[in-house]
């Protein structure tokens, strides 16, 4: 097991050294994005059902639910639930959108390295230019992969949040 972890760590270090320092920024943004998405999944599956059950119990305990005042209370509660469900979703979507841009930053820094090598050694040293091209392409690929994983899971999460909110709204029915 320890050998596997050491091999994995060496592979990650090699990948980061091939792609340059921008890969560390991509990794940080990816880590932050996934921590926030996992927190939202936790809230949706663990905390929100308790909140929903409590809200439905409070609504069912009301004597009247058909007046104008009761409708406004219901709307306020649904709005509060929507706010709690959608907390941090804008940050997640922003991080997803930023991932490809950070990858492009890596492309620019890698190409600057290529031009530096060309300026110092000329165009005859293909091996020296290859390192800069590798530094240019790896962050772009990493940023795109990070964004794709984020797009897929944040879209699914967003859909589940909307369904949960609709179910809550349907559960707060009017009594005549």
TrEMBL record:
Membrane-topology descriptor: Multi-pass membrane protein
Chain ranges passing through the membrane: 22-43, 90-112, 132-153
InterPro entries: ExbB/TolQ_transport, MotA_ExbB_proton_chnl
Cellular localisation: Cell membrane; Membrane
A Pfam match: MotA_ExbB
Keywords: Cell membrane, Membrane, Protein transport, Transmembrane, Transmembrane helix, Transport
Major localisation: membrane
Protein name stated in the entry: TonB2 energy transduction system inner membrane component ExbB
